[in-house]
Amino acid sequence: MDSHSLRGQLSLLIVMAATVILLAVGAAIIVLWPNLLLAGIIIGCCSVLVALVGIGRILDRRWVLWFAVPAFALAGLGSIMLAEDLGISRVGELTEVVVVDHTSEVKTVHDSTDPGGRKVYTHEYTLQHTDGSPIEEPMIYRGKDGFEEFDTGDTISVLIGADGNAPIEPAESIDFAADIAILVVGVLLSAGVYLMCALLLLFGNRRYREDRWGAAP
After folding, report:
1. What gap in Å lies between CA 53 and CA 47, rounded to an integer?
2. What is the 3-state secondary structure (H, E, C) of the chain?
3. Using CA atoms, how far apart are residues 99 and 114, in angstroms rounded to an integer?
4. Which of 71, 94, 73, 87 is nearest to 38 (CA)?
5. Residue range 35-82, pLDDT digits in tens
6. What is the rounded distance in angstroms from the CA atom of residue 15 to the CA atom of residue 157?
Protein backbone atom coordinates (compact mmCIF):
# COMPACT_ATOMS: atom_id res chain seq x y z
CA MET A 1 0.00 0.00 0.00
CA ASP A 2 1.57 3.33 -1.08
CA SER A 3 1.62 6.44 1.10
CA HIS A 4 -1.24 8.09 -0.83
CA SER A 5 -3.52 5.10 -0.30
CA LEU A 6 -2.51 4.86 3.37
CA ARG A 7 -3.36 8.52 3.96
CA GLY A 8 -6.66 8.00 2.19
CA GLN A 9 -7.55 4.99 4.32
CA LEU A 10 -6.70 6.91 7.49
CA SER A 11 -8.76 9.91 6.36
CA LEU A 12 -11.67 7.62 5.50
CA LEU A 13 -11.48 6.06 8.98
CA ILE A 14 -11.53 9.53 10.58
CA VAL A 15 -14.55 10.56 8.50
CA MET A 16 -16.37 7.35 9.42
CA ALA A 17 -15.64 7.85 13.13
CA ALA A 18 -16.76 11.50 13.01
CA THR A 19 -19.98 10.49 11.25
CA VAL A 20 -20.80 7.82 13.82
CA ILE A 21 -19.98 10.10 16.76
CA LEU A 22 -22.10 12.99 15.47
CA LEU A 23 -25.02 10.67 14.69
CA ALA A 24 -24.78 9.11 18.16
CA VAL A 25 -24.66 12.54 19.83
CA GLY A 26 -27.72 13.72 17.89
CA ALA A 27 -29.65 10.56 18.77
CA ALA A 28 -28.64 10.79 22.45
CA ILE A 29 -29.85 14.38 22.66
CA ILE A 30 -33.25 13.41 21.23
CA VAL A 31 -33.61 10.44 23.60
CA LEU A 32 -32.60 12.36 26.73
CA TRP A 33 -34.28 15.66 25.86
CA PRO A 34 -37.16 15.08 23.42
CA ASN A 35 -37.98 18.80 23.44
CA LEU A 36 -34.60 19.38 21.72
CA LEU A 37 -35.68 17.38 18.68
CA LEU A 38 -34.62 20.13 16.25
CA ALA A 39 -31.10 20.25 17.71
CA GLY A 40 -30.78 16.48 17.35
CA ILE A 41 -32.00 16.62 13.75
CA ILE A 42 -29.49 19.38 12.91
CA ILE A 43 -26.62 17.35 14.38
CA GLY A 44 -27.84 14.27 12.46
CA CYS A 45 -27.86 16.26 9.21
CA CYS A 46 -24.36 17.52 9.99
CA SER A 47 -23.17 13.93 10.38
CA VAL A 48 -24.47 13.09 6.90
CA LEU A 49 -22.81 16.20 5.44
CA VAL A 50 -19.51 15.30 7.11
CA ALA A 51 -19.65 11.85 5.52
CA LEU A 52 -20.50 13.15 2.05
CA VAL A 53 -18.01 16.03 2.05
CA GLY A 54 -15.29 13.80 3.50
CA ILE A 55 -15.79 11.07 0.88
CA GLY A 56 -15.99 13.67 -1.88
CA ARG A 57 -12.63 15.14 -0.86
CA ILE A 58 -10.86 11.84 -0.26
CA LEU A 59 -11.85 10.04 -3.45
CA ASP A 60 -11.28 10.97 -7.07
CA ARG A 61 -14.52 9.29 -8.11
CA ARG A 62 -17.48 11.60 -7.55
CA TRP A 63 -19.95 8.95 -8.74
CA VAL A 64 -19.53 7.27 -5.36
CA LEU A 65 -21.67 10.05 -3.89
CA TRP A 66 -24.67 8.75 -5.85
CA PHE A 67 -24.50 5.64 -3.67
CA ALA A 68 -23.48 7.48 -0.51
CA VAL A 69 -26.33 10.03 -0.40
CA PRO A 70 -29.26 7.56 -0.03
CA ALA A 71 -27.24 5.25 2.24
CA PHE A 72 -26.25 7.94 4.76
CA ALA A 73 -29.65 9.63 4.51
CA LEU A 74 -31.39 6.37 5.46
CA ALA A 75 -28.99 5.80 8.35
CA GLY A 76 -29.55 9.32 9.64
CA LEU A 77 -33.32 9.13 9.21
CA GLY A 78 -33.56 5.77 10.97
CA SER A 79 -31.40 6.98 13.84
CA ILE A 80 -33.46 10.14 14.36
CA MET A 81 -36.81 8.32 14.11
CA LEU A 82 -35.76 5.64 16.58
CA ALA A 83 -34.32 8.21 18.98
CA GLU A 84 -37.48 10.32 18.80
CA ASP A 85 -39.74 7.36 19.57
CA LEU A 86 -37.47 6.23 22.41
CA GLY A 87 -37.45 9.74 23.85
CA ILE A 88 -41.23 10.10 23.66
CA SER A 89 -41.75 6.66 25.20
CA ARG A 90 -39.36 7.52 28.01
CA VAL A 91 -41.15 10.72 29.07
CA GLY A 92 -44.70 9.71 28.15
CA GLU A 93 -47.12 7.51 30.06
CA LEU A 94 -49.39 5.21 28.07
CA THR A 95 -52.98 6.23 28.88
CA GLU A 96 -56.42 5.45 27.52
CA VAL A 97 -58.44 8.58 26.75
CA VAL A 98 -61.66 9.60 25.02
CA VAL A 99 -61.72 12.13 22.17
CA VAL A 100 -64.47 14.59 23.13
CA ASP A 101 -63.95 17.23 20.46
CA HIS A 102 -62.02 17.83 17.25
CA THR A 103 -61.54 21.27 15.72
CA SER A 104 -59.46 22.35 12.74
CA GLU A 105 -58.11 25.71 11.64
CA VAL A 106 -56.72 26.80 8.28
CA LYS A 107 -54.46 29.82 7.91
CA THR A 108 -52.87 31.26 4.80
CA VAL A 109 -49.24 32.18 5.33
CA HIS A 110 -47.48 34.54 2.89
CA ASP A 111 -43.70 34.64 2.52
CA SER A 112 -41.06 35.56 -0.05
CA THR A 113 -40.80 32.01 -1.39
CA ASP A 114 -44.53 31.70 -1.99
CA PRO A 115 -46.14 35.12 -2.68
CA GLY A 116 -49.51 33.48 -3.32
CA GLY A 117 -49.52 32.06 0.18
CA ARG A 118 -49.63 28.53 1.52
CA LYS A 119 -52.26 26.95 3.71
CA VAL A 120 -51.31 25.78 7.19
CA TYR A 121 -53.65 23.26 8.81
CA THR A 122 -53.87 22.79 12.59
CA HIS A 123 -56.06 20.13 14.22
CA GLU A 124 -56.82 20.18 17.95
CA TYR A 125 -58.22 17.15 19.76
CA THR A 126 -59.78 17.73 23.17
CA LEU A 127 -59.36 14.66 25.37
CA GLN A 128 -60.56 13.36 28.70
CA HIS A 129 -59.70 10.37 30.86
CA THR A 130 -61.98 7.36 30.69
CA ASP A 131 -63.29 8.27 34.17
CA GLY A 132 -64.51 11.60 32.79
CA SER A 133 -61.78 13.82 34.26
CA PRO A 134 -60.52 16.41 31.75
CA ILE A 135 -57.09 16.67 30.20
CA GLU A 136 -56.19 20.34 30.18
CA GLU A 137 -54.12 20.57 27.02
CA PRO A 138 -55.37 19.40 23.61
CA MET A 139 -53.46 17.06 21.35
CA ILE A 140 -52.33 19.00 18.29
CA TYR A 141 -51.67 17.77 14.76
CA ARG A 142 -50.25 20.09 12.12
CA GLY A 143 -51.16 18.78 8.69
CA LYS A 144 -54.01 18.72 6.23
CA ASP A 145 -55.93 15.59 7.24
CA GLY A 146 -55.20 15.30 10.95
CA PHE A 147 -55.21 11.91 12.64
CA GLU A 148 -57.34 9.90 10.23
CA GLU A 149 -57.49 6.82 12.47
CA PHE A 150 -59.89 8.32 15.01
CA ASP A 151 -62.26 11.19 15.71
CA THR A 152 -64.78 12.49 18.25
CA GLY A 153 -66.18 9.79 20.53
CA ASP A 154 -63.38 7.27 20.04
CA THR A 155 -61.36 5.79 22.88
CA ILE A 156 -57.65 5.74 22.03
CA SER A 157 -54.29 5.16 23.69
CA VAL A 158 -51.96 8.14 23.88
CA LEU A 159 -48.65 8.98 25.49
CA ILE A 160 -49.14 11.72 28.08
CA GLY A 161 -46.48 13.80 29.78
CA ALA A 162 -45.49 13.32 33.41
CA ASP A 163 -47.90 16.03 34.62
CA GLY A 164 -50.82 14.10 33.15
CA ASN A 165 -52.12 17.10 31.25
CA ALA A 166 -50.01 17.25 28.09
CA PRO A 167 -50.81 14.58 25.48
CA ILE A 168 -47.78 13.96 23.29
CA GLU A 169 -49.07 11.72 20.50
CA PRO A 170 -51.11 8.57 19.85
CA ALA A 171 -49.41 5.39 20.98
CA GLU A 172 -49.90 3.84 17.54
CA SER A 173 -47.61 6.52 16.09
CA ILE A 174 -44.69 4.83 17.88
CA ASP A 175 -43.37 2.13 15.55
CA PHE A 176 -40.05 0.75 16.78
CA ALA A 177 -40.02 -2.06 14.21
CA ALA A 178 -40.15 0.38 11.30
CA ASP A 179 -37.53 2.65 12.92
CA ILE A 180 -35.13 -0.25 13.46
CA ALA A 181 -35.71 -1.60 9.94
CA ILE A 182 -34.85 1.77 8.37
CA LEU A 183 -31.80 2.15 10.61
CA VAL A 184 -30.50 -1.36 9.86
CA VAL A 185 -30.90 -0.88 6.11
CA GLY A 186 -29.18 2.51 6.31
CA VAL A 187 -26.30 1.17 8.41
CA LEU A 188 -25.74 -1.80 6.07
CA LEU A 189 -25.80 0.42 2.99
CA SER A 190 -23.47 2.93 4.65
CA ALA A 191 -21.07 0.15 5.62
CA GLY A 192 -21.15 -1.02 2.00
CA VAL A 193 -20.33 2.50 0.81
CA TYR A 194 -17.37 2.75 3.19
CA LEU A 195 -16.13 -0.68 2.07
CA MET A 196 -16.41 0.39 -1.56
CA CYS A 197 -14.48 3.57 -0.78
CA ALA A 198 -11.75 1.59 0.98
CA LEU A 199 -11.41 -0.75 -2.03
CA LEU A 200 -11.29 2.20 -4.41
CA LEU A 201 -8.52 3.76 -2.36
CA LEU A 202 -6.64 0.47 -2.35
CA PHE A 203 -7.04 -0.44 -6.03
CA GLY A 204 -9.20 1.98 -8.00
CA ASN A 205 -7.42 5.25 -7.32
CA ARG A 206 -4.04 3.74 -8.18
CA ARG A 207 -5.40 2.50 -11.50
CA TYR A 208 -7.03 5.89 -12.07
CA ARG A 209 -3.75 7.72 -11.52
CA GLU A 210 -1.88 5.32 -13.78
CA ASP A 211 -4.45 5.72 -16.56
CA ARG A 212 -4.36 9.49 -16.24
CA TRP A 213 -0.65 10.15 -15.74
CA GLY A 214 0.95 6.92 -16.93
CA ALA A 215 2.45 4.15 -14.85
CA ALA A 216 5.49 5.01 -12.82
CA PRO A 217 8.76 3.83 -14.43
Report:
1. 10
2. CCHHHHHHHHHHHHHHHHHHHHHHHHHHHHHHCHHHHHHHHHHHHHHHHHHHHHHHHHCCCCCHHHHHHHHHHHHHHHHHHHHHHHHHHHHCEEEEEEEEEEEEEEEEEEECCEEEEEEEEEEEEEEEECCCCECCCCEEEECCCCCCCCCCCCEEEEEECCCCCCEEEEHHHCCHHHHHHHHHHHHHHHHHHHHHHHHHHHHHHHHHHHHHHCCCC
3. 36
4. 87
5. 788 999 999 999 999 999 999 888 877 788 899 999 999 999 999 999
6. 43
β partners of residue 141: 123
pLDDT tens string 120-173: 889 999 999 899 988 888 888 888 888 888 889 999 888 887 666 666 678 878
